[in-house]
């Protein structure tokens, strides 16, 4: 709780910088618009204005400054415009409408969750294999680590094309990109976690004459939980990024990525910004959900710090 | 049927070799086993595609990718220079420097530090790649917009790690510096920055992959007619998948080399840290 005030301060500073940046970013557009509406501005020709710096132009046309916050197609929208657009496209629109961010959010979220489930399941299975079979550890683990250094997202357009030519479209190709991105953090985290019990604990189980399965269920798996949750939080945000990027280069018609692309191509910056913030809020909610789950389950397991 | 049998045969052979390697113990198995595993996968891919009559439009065999790679070296090099050298590296250096400066400034105030750690960690988890269309609109389609996306993407992980690292000194160490009469700058340069280095390099290593992803994905939103992201998206459209795979090989090599370079510098600079001792 004692962190609330500092966090609010930092957020306020960021918002303040944003609000201040709106004026110089939009002033040229705003002055052009004002001239078209018949307001007298200095300098008078657009060409002359191009040579004037943003701050100087704002200083000479102080009357136009409020207009920089209300442009239809701003270079940088004001925070209140983004909030208004978010409100309009979530609460103000029917969920079934193609304009609704709830609809687009669900398209992206469903791919994210499906991919996350696949990636996490396979990741845990591979981690168990790596911990119990030395051959797998030696041959697969270096690749799992090396794959972290490779920009996997470059594969996204190709996965969509390959699966499209096999007749698979829609949810699954995006989910596979999400699965791929959330897979490796889980493998690496779980291997670390399953190996986290120290020699004393393993020896104790041996004196109890526990077999490998009992050692797994009673010691290794519970001990790996903190590592698993840390990986899940990385994995779910990676899965969301994967789903969004999976929508970008493929001409998807629905989803956050598609909204960003539409806003970009049809010159509607507010649509792009709203989709961006909606994606950020979704990521925050997902990570927050796993943090809460982590706190509750670690507390019940007696591992809360 | 025959393709399946051949694939199983290759898989089995690779597995047996690795089983033998694993039995023989530490020395050679450490580097040979992953090598054999990788080669087995490549062989399975090659054999499966050739015997299974998979269309090269869906999945080209590795040999075809290698041929394309060798044939289009000039193109690949131009794309590499545009995307990695200009876009990713410029953005990475700018983002990292900005993160250091902000971290050192913020570190002077405990209040700000407590605020910036959670906010930065939160921002690092957001899909910042999505800002790419906005930056392309602001800075044009050439490499500066890619560098900007990369800069923002790498900023937060490096910032959070640096701020956390600068706090990672014990009371005893700080007291010792005080008994030496060291002021703010000497204790920063001689104690806190060196103590922060392992954290900083953790952030720098995470950021290498982010930098490449940012530079490549930003090109999907608009780029000159050169660059890895541009090549990937246009070649997918032309169904020239062998060229796409060649670009992915370049991306993988660049990513590994970038990460490896950071790990090497880390080893030289933080040789005293327990994780680096051999």
Automatic annotation (TrEMBL), chain A:
Keywords: Cell membrane, Membrane, Transmembrane, Transmembrane helix, Transport. Residues 101-294 form the ABC transmembrane type-1 domain. The keyword Transport applies. Pfam families: BPD_transp_1. InterPro entries: MetI-like, MetI-like_sf. It is found in: Cell membrane. One of its GO terms (cellular component) is plasma membrane. Signal peptide: none annotated. SUPFAM superfamilies: MetI-like (SSF161098). The chain crosses the membrane at residues 7-27, 106-133, 145-166, 172-191, 227-250, 270-293. It is a multi-pass membrane protein. Belongs to the binding-protein-dependent transport system permease family. This is NitT/TauT family transport system permease protein.
Automatic annotation (TrEMBL), chain B:
Residues 94-270 form the ABC transmembrane type-1 domain. It is found in: Cell membrane. This is NitT/TauT family transport system permease protein. It holds the Pfam family BPD_transp_1. The chain crosses the membrane at residues 28-45, 84-106, 115-135, 147-166, 199-223, 243-265. Its main location: membrane. It is a multi-pass membrane protein. One of its GO terms (cellular component) is plasma membrane. Keywords: Cell membrane, Membrane, Transmembrane, Transmembrane helix, Transport. GO terms for biological process: transmembrane transport. The lineage of its organism: Bacteria, Pseudomonadati, Pseudomonadota, Alphaproteobacteria, Rhodobacterales.
């Amino acid at each position: 709780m004692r962190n609330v005030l500092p966090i609010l301060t930092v957020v306020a500073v960021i918002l303040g910088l944003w609000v201040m940046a709106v004026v110089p970013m939009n002033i040229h557009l705003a002055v052009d618009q004002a001239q078209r509406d018949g307001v007298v501005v200095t300098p008078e020709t657009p060409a002359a204005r191009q040579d004037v710096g943003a701050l100087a132009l704002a200083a000479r046309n102080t009357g136009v400054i409020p207009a920089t916050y209300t442009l239809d197609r701003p270079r940088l929208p004001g925070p209140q415009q983004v909030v208004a657009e978010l409100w309009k496209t979530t609460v103000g629109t029917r969920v079934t409408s193609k304009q609704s961010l709830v609809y687009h959010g669900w398209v992206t979220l469903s791919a994210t969750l499906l991919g996350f489930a696949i990636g996490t399941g396979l990741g845990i299975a591979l981690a168990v294999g790596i911990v119990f079979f030395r051959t797998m550890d030696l041959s697969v683990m270096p690749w799992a680590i090396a794959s972290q250094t490779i920009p996997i997202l470059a594969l996204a357009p190709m996965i969509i094309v390959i699966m499209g030519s096999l007749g698979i479209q829609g949810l699954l190709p995006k989910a596979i990109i999400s699965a791929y991105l959330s897979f490796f953090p889980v493998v690496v985290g779980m291997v670390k976690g399953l190996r986290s019990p120290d020699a004393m604990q393993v020896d104790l189980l041996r004196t109890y004459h526990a077999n490998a399965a009992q050692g797994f269920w009673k010691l290794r798996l519970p001990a790996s939980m903190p590592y698993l949750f840390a990986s899940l939080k990385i994995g779910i945000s990676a899965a969301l990024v994967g789903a969004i990027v999976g929508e970008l280069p493929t001409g998807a018609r629905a989803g956050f990525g598609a909204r960003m692309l539409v806003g970009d191509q049809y010159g509607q910056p507010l649509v792009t910004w709203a989709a961006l913030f909606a994606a950020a809020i979704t990521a925050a909610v997902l990570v927050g959900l796993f943090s809460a789950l982590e706190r509750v389950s670690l507390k019940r397991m007696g591992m809360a710090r | 049927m025959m393709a399946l049998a051949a694939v199983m045969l290759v898989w089995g052979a690779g597995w047996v070799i690795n089983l033998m390697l694993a039995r023989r113990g530490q020395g050679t198995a450490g580097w040979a086993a992953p090598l054999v595993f990788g080669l087995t996968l490549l062989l399975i891919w090659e054999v499966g595609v050739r015997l299974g009559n998979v269309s090269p439009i869906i999945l080209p065999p590795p040999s075809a990718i290698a041929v394309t790679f060798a044939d289009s070296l000039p193109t690949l090099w131009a794309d590499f220079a545009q995307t990695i050298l200009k876009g990713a590296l410029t953005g990475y250096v700018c983002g990292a420097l900005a993160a250091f400066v902000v971290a050192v400034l913020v570190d002077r105030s405990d209040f700000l530090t407590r605020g910036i750690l959670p906010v930065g960690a939160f921002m690092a988890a957001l899909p910042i790649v999505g800002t790419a269309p906005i930056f392309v609109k602001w800075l044009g389609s050439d490499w500066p917009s890619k560098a900007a996306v990369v800069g923002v993407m790498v900023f937060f992980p490096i910032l959070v790690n640096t701020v956390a690292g600068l706090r990672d000194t014990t009371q005893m160490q700080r007291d010792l510096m005080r008994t030496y009469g060291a002021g703010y700058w000497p204790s920063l340069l001689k104690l806190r920055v060196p103590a922060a280095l392992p954290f900083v390099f953790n952030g720098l290593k995470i950021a290498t992959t982010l930098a490449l992803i940012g530079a490549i994905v930003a090109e999907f939103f608009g780029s000159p007619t050169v660059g890895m992201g541009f090549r990937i998206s246009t070649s997918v459209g032309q169904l020239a998948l062998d060229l796409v795979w060649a670009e992915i090989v370049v991306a993988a090599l660049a990513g590994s080399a970038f990460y490896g370079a950071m790990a090497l510098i880390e080893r030289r600079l933080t040789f005293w840290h327990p994780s680096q001792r051999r």
